[in-house]
Amino acid sequence: MKRRVGFKVERRPVASGRVVFLVSLLAILAALVVAGIFFRIYGVSPIRAYQLILRGSLGSRFGLAETVRRAIPLLLCGVGLTIAFRALFWNIGAEGQLLMGAVGAAGVALFSGLPGPLLLPGMFIGGFLAGAAWGLIPAILKVMLGLNDVITTLMMNYIALYFVEWLIHGPWKGPSARGFAYTDTFPRAAWLPTLYGTRIHWPTLVLGLVLAVVMYILVTRTRSGFEIRVIGENPDAARFAGISQLKTTLVVMLISGGFAGLAGVGEIAGIHLRLLGPTHISMGYGYTAIIVAWLARRNPLAVIVTSLLFGVIMTGGDVIKVSLGLPFQLINVFNGLILFFLIGSEILLRYKISFLLRR
Fold first, then answer.
1. Is-contact 274 256, C-beta < 8 A?
2. DSSP string over 25-36
3. Is the pTM of this model over 0.90?
């Protein structure tokens, strides 16, 4: 008798944690395979390229420090984005919110006149409020006018970018800059401490880890978290239950934008020590954090792991540029491939495919 192989598609009630992990791992492996084709096009062995990336980002004290340093803004932005995504608010504006947080912190450092001990706390408060305010604008536009949140948050990134450019070329340009477009260096009291011999501004790192735990507890153990989950999973049920979409949307964007603003504070107070060009403040951290949050499956605790993974990838970009002579932009291609396969693998979380052997 002949045997035929068939398959059956069934809808999953809920995807287990094991299934989510395996599907995410499959998406990353698929991205690695396709990215290997691009390395081959440049005449480089993919295996050698990945070995160099791992060795350069994790195989030395300097590489590990740079990996952690770049994971810090991804951690803060990613945790905030998980909260927004849970409420079905597609915040694509973390990049602009990060830049506005840097502006808020720089304003406090340069013009507030606060005494030394209060300067850094004031910068973090100013950065959080500036990022949160930048996030609240598209939230209000969506709830009040029904405007698309993807478009408004994305467009506000460019407004923030050119606003920073205007500040450093105009009213905030430092007299000591001597032709360069940036502000004066911050007072010494406005510098974040770093781990010895590294650029890891550890107060921001600790803050990111604490906020990841706090947001996990908020989402899973509190009434506000329950309301966020209901709006994200069933907006109609949330409306019938009397949950205010306006209040919830404003709260999640206050958190999401504020956390991105904190990432901006860390970058200028811990790394650059002045406000300077947007592409120097952020290496696309706000955009990469979207993939970080998506790979974490909207789990704030999982962002700790995924942000470190993308810290490895971003540090690896420097490695392949220096060691292999390849363009740094290959890392952006790799990030895009991961997001592409993550979105494509969503169907495996909703449906179960079973292979059958028939006679």
1. no
2. HHHHHHHHHHHH
3. yes
